[in-house]
């Protein structure tokens, strides 16, 4: 979690991550960026126990404050949003949340739909059969072709991407796929970017 790493980063203290199932292993040491390191991608991680909610409706397009109200409703019932994606048409918003909060989230969002009298948000879908993968690396920023390699790799193993999210820092490309494909996708990305083998 960023809050656990930030104090060490600010003081230049290396952090070692160990494997509880292999305590004698060397683990991974996190240090400041090494400029001569040629690896653009540093890590591929997967998160399960998540659920995807999509709100859609033509009336959402151009209606000011819809996203703000969605996020406020979720915050008010203690739901943390892991990922967000919205198309430029503004006709849908997708959010990835922890699966344990799905019931609270759906209740809150159906209340919001009712407040709009069904004129703005027409449908609310949820998918619990998903996982999220994040491809991370500080040197990914500004490097053309990284995103292409990621999704070409996923396409070659015949896996469909359901949702995509990337921050403007370009240090993290995250996407959602069916849960039963996650291990195959992570291994394929490890192979593509010459990362250490999955254990």
Structure description:
With 199 residues, this protein is of the alpha+beta class. Helices cover 29% and strands 30% of the residues. It has helices spanning 2-11, 66-76, 102-115, 146-156, 182-192; strands spanning 15-17, 28-30, 43-56, 81-86, 92-98, 123-136, 161-166, 172-178. The strands form 2 sheets. A 6-stranded antiparallel beta sheet has the order 4-5-3-6-8-7. A two-stranded antiparallel sheet has the order 1-2. A hairpin with a 5-residue loop joins strand 7 and strand 8 (172-178). Helix 4 (146-156) packs across helix 5. The longest helix has 14 residues, at 102-115. It starts with a helix and ends in a 7-residue tail after the last helix. The mean pLDDT is 88.
Main features:
199 residues; alpha+beta; six-stranded antiparallel sheet; 5 helices; 29% helix; 30% strand; globular
Short characterization:
This protein is of the alpha+beta class and 199 residues long. The protein is built from 5 helices and 8 strands, in the order H-E-E-E-H-E-E-H-E-H-E-E-H.
Class derived from helix and strand content: alpha+beta
Q: Main sheet?
A: 6 strands, antiparallel
Helix content: 25-40%
Unreliable runs:
none
Order the strands across the largest sheet as they lie in space: 4-5-3-6-8-7
What does the oligomeric state look like here?
A: single chain
Succession of helices and strands: HEEEHEEHEHEEH
Q: What shape does the CA trace take? A: globular
